[in-house]
Design goal:
The complex is a heterotetramer, with two copies of chain A (299 residues) and two copies of chain B (264 residues). Chain A is an alpha/beta fold and 299 residues long. Chain A is 35% helix and 21% strand. Chain A has two domains: 231 residues, Glutaconate Coenzyme A-transferase (3-Layer(aba) Sandwich), CATH 3.40.1080; 35 residues, no CATH class. In chain A, β4, α4 and β5 form a beta-alpha-beta unit. Chain A is globular, with a radius of gyration of 19 Å. Chain B has a single domain, classed as Glutaconate Coenzyme A-transferase (3-Layer(aba) Sandwich), CATH 3.40.1080.10. Chain B has seven helices and 13 strands. Chain B has a five-stranded mixed beta sheet with strand order 5-10-11-12-13, sandwiched between helices. A four-stranded mixed beta sheet of chain B has the order 1-2-3-4, with no helix packed on it. Classes of the chains: A alpha/beta (299), B alpha/beta (264). At the A-B interface, α4, α5 and α6 of A face β9 and α4 of B.
Chain lengths: 299, 264, 264, 299
């Protein structure tokens, strides 16, 4: 009479199918680390448009790629750079300067206010930092009001509810108990805010392994699990590989050709080579090449 | 090999100045990407402040037992977690900013005469900026809550030092005046110094208008004035920014900045 | 040994009824101190719902592979953490109540005709209560956010079932009416059933006034009416609460309630 | 030139000296587990009065003891019971019924709102649950207001800022990096809310041990560390011992004598025997007896 527990592991195409035009999508990770790139490429391959994207608290070239491919209508972000690779990502900068991108301008404090309000089922949460700045002016969704108890001025940061969070992590069991290696950045906050979550992981591990260290379970229950080794490439997969600086610089260079010379060809070549031609994640890994992949060790 | 105080770079000078701002026992966030403040904070830690709690790549650590720092340049890198005493989930920063850092270093595309700064962008119309910046990262919130903060820029010119920022992402002394932060309903000690490759500036006590504090060796007051886009308060006597001691230089070069980022 | 459906206790009957309210794949908080709901939820898990995520002693777990449950009676006990798949920091509950549970069981010192309930105390003056209750624990917040909840009491009398609670710690259907929760600006499905040692009650669709749903074997409608302090809606036909099946009783006794807490 | 790191380990009397009349004190743990009882006894031994006490989200007999000893003016609590030992603690019930105790009545959601507001430096934080209940009536510090963005009704829960949090945990290094065994209940929230924190621990462990599992560091930086083996007794010390049911029942029985028959003598005897006569924690442990202590194993 007891049926077995149901595996939540799905394939790349099923996972991609969960993302639709016009959705609000939160994408985990931090700058050049831990983005669920199989799912990011799925978004581009499927030609999904008009997304509201909640980038990681500090965004990175993963979002720049989605801007370049025309998938994003509105971006929630506090920073769009790639640290030592690039101070401001080129497609973001160009799209923002041309007014082609709606931007929910905020800092990291406000960013987590918006996610926390979503998780808590609240219309907004208050924040003090930002009083006296331009944020309420450049982001009219943020309102200044008086605290109902003390009367002092406070900012109201509206809830942003992702329809779906896509998160990269080291491990999950088949039942959606996810464990990160490292801190997990702000991924927990995205998972709590979102209606549903797909975890893209390096390895699906036995439930018994999860139970050996329950404190390490960072997301206690996601809706679907996608196994994809090297799935954060070209970004770092903490505990497995560091970022691929050569590849990131190749993408940034393509972006700079567009930003500086209005030349989209290098990006179109990048897009064709790495995203549109490879039909699957395995195809992508072949294009990158095993020699490159195994060179990205941590020590 | 011993270094002599006679030969040091401007970056080493700035790092040393920053190192003297750190107080033992504080929590101090180490911005991975900014070599000069990072080196300054580590220098303070190694020489004077064994009890600071360093926030580094989303961990807390203490590094006084590290004979030599391995290089780390990014916020997201997992390798510095080898030193961790605690992991911080990034969203925890918003639960209690003061548990991340008691002090902070803030940069800017623009900085105005009252120390307000701008990382959003340059231009009159937010929807059509002439130069889009990277964004505020966590500077708005950290600068709001910390005990005090420091402005730091890697070049000193009239594009950066403007009379009025096009946008403000981090409040310094608002519209000026010692009570300007209080009037805005915000806590924290505001910016104390602005450190540039030419000089150090502070804020005049009553007006909170930016004032020249010291010039780096070889820099003239005139040079600073010519490269600043607002009228700077110039005291009658402007000292030279104190040079690093031999021990400071040696510690920087032999324990912290092994790759010579500050010597380039 | 096989149990026969003919011999079961009221507690076993109530636990079985509760077990049928659980849906597979949900998150379900297991209140450690209430033996009947705890047994009901575990019964559902063992027989029909292998994919529920059990929230138990501040951990999440899945117990379908446990042949027999070791006893656990408290929220704070560390021993059930041996089953954990994840730890929950207690304050995380307030970050997202729905990540703790999709459904909930709420008790009460008083319950009124619209399913509002009171754990604060009995009396007219909060500062001088005639009977001070334990407090709401997390019931206010959980009942607000969950998909639906269940009222459960261990006795059925007129002190508990009152026309109007002296204080409301958990809103049911407010002042009555299907839109009563919406009018209050609150989400969630509200209370579905009220389970007592005499009967099960539900809420009439339009008025959301409490209605007799089923009586336990051997209990008369008259008995329920006499022990309820408000006018209960009595349908023309009141069925008996369904008895546990042999498999349900066997599972309760041999895998869940080894100490016989439900048989006392 | 490098001085060593400074140890934050202090003795019982120094720790007790940090607690003063009229302070707001948060006391960690949960019901019958993980209360810093050496410090709780210090409060009573020193005759400290007029405390505002933020009990654990679900309180327990630790708070009832402080009520009995007359230390508490105002109590922030969501539940005052001892689970299977006692549904409602007797001194709390009596004091509340007689109007002798100010109560900040709240549920666990509101409780963490108040602590979070304190940690975030906000005057209040919003909460939806509680609309339609008696909480704003029985607790006038809670206000109903309209969300500044959507206009919907919301409760404002005021910040409660503990001057000091006293927390029990399994371990700390000498530098205040604290590690719990088990979940740590809501202790992190108290530590974040409070101006200062003393961690009372079973063992002070080497810093190298802390570094072996940085994810287990629950409080990254407290202000003082007090070592006290069996220091949660008569409550559970997770990983070390379970609660002492015999002792807890003895205290509850003394409380019931007062609540039911207005007879304070059994409590006065309890107080004299376990709290006033023993001058130190070691004295207390001798009164309890090593046989009892070692009998409180977990399996």
């Amino acid at each position: 009479m007891i049926s077995e527990r149901k595996s939540l592991v799905i394939d790349e195409s099923t996972a991609g199918g969960m993302i639709r035009d016009g959705m609000t999508i939160a994408i985990g990770g931090f700058i050049n680390s831990s983005h669920p790139m199989v799912l990011v490429r799925q978004i581009i391959q499927r030609g999904i448009k008009n997304l509201t994207v909640v980038g990681a608290a500090s965004g990175g070239p993963d979002l720049d790629l989605l801007i370049a491919a025309g998938c994003i209508k509105k971006l929630v972000t506090t920073y769009m750079g790639a640290e030592h690779f690039c101070p401001i990502t080129p497609f973001f900068r160009t799209a923002a300067q041309r007014g082609e991108l709606e931007i929910f301008e905020c800092d990291e404090g406000m960013f987590y206010c918006a996610l926390r309000a979503a998780a808590q089922g609240l219309p907004s949460t208050p924040w003090k930092a930002g009083l006296g700045t331009s944020f309420p002016e450049v982001n009219p969704e943020i309102k200044v009001y008086s605290d109902p108890i003390t009367g002092e001025p406070v900012l109201a940061i509206p809830a942003i509810v992702p329809d779906l969070a896509i998160i990269y992590a080291a491990h999950s069991d088949a039942y959606g108990n996810v464990q990160h290696i490292g801190t997990g950045f702000g991924d927990r906050a995205m998972w709590r805010a979102a209606k549903r979550t797909i975890a893209q992981v390096e390895r699906v591990i036995p439930n018994e392994e999860v139970r050996k260290n329950p404190l390490a379970t960072s997301l206690y229950g996601v809706d679907a699990v996608l196994r994809a080794p090297y799935g954060a490439h070209p970004f770092a997969g903490p505990g497995y590989y560091i970022e691929d600086g050569i590849h990131i610089r190749e993408f940034i260079a393509a972006g700079n050709a567009y930003a500086k010379n209005n030349d989209r060809r290098p990006f179109e070549e990048y897009l064709q080579k790495y995203i549109l031609s490879p039909k699957t994640h395995e195809d992508y890994l072949e294009v990158v090449g095993i020699r490159r992949l195994v060179s990205l060790h941590e020590h | 090999m011993t270094s002599t105080a006679a030969s040091f770079t401007t970056k080493e000078l700035m790092a040393t100045f920053i190192s003297h701002q750190v107080r033992d026992g504080e929590r101090v966030a180490v911005g991975a990407g900014l070599h000069v403040p990072r080196a300054g904070i580590l220098l303070a830690h190694m020489l004077r402040c064994p009890n600071v709690r360093l926030y580094l790549a989303m961990t807390f650590t203490n590094l006084i037992k590290e004979p030599k720092m391995e290089p780390f340049y990014t916020t997201y890198d997992i390798r510095p977690t080898k030193w961790a005493e605690a992991y911080v989930f990034h969203e925890d920063f918003q639960e209690k900013p003061r548990f991340i850092s008691d002090t902070f270093v803030v940069g800017g595309l623009q900085i105005d005469k009252f120390g307000n700064s701008n990382l959003i962008g340059v231009g009159k119309d937010f929807k059509h900026l002439t130069f889009r910046g990277p964004g505020a990262v966590g500077t708005t919130s950290m600068a709001h809550y910390v005990d005090r903060y420091y402005l730091f820029v890697q070049s000193h010119d009239k594009r950066i030092f403007v009379d009025k920022c096009d946008f403000i992402s981090t409040v310094g002394w608002g519209q000026g005046g010692a009570d300007s932060r209080k009037k805005l309903g915000i806590p924290g000690g505001g910016p104390v110094y602005c450190i540039t490759p030419l000089c150090v500036m502070d804020f005049e006590e009553k007006s909170k208008h930016m004032r020249l504090y010291s010039v780096h060796p070889g820099v003239t007051v005139q040079q600073v004035v010519e490269n600043t886009g607002f009228e700077l308060i110039i005291p009658s006597n402007v000292p030279e920014t104190p040079a690093p001691t031999d021990e400071e230089l040696r510690t920087l070069r032999e324990r912290i900045d092994l790759e010579g980022m500050l010597r380039k």
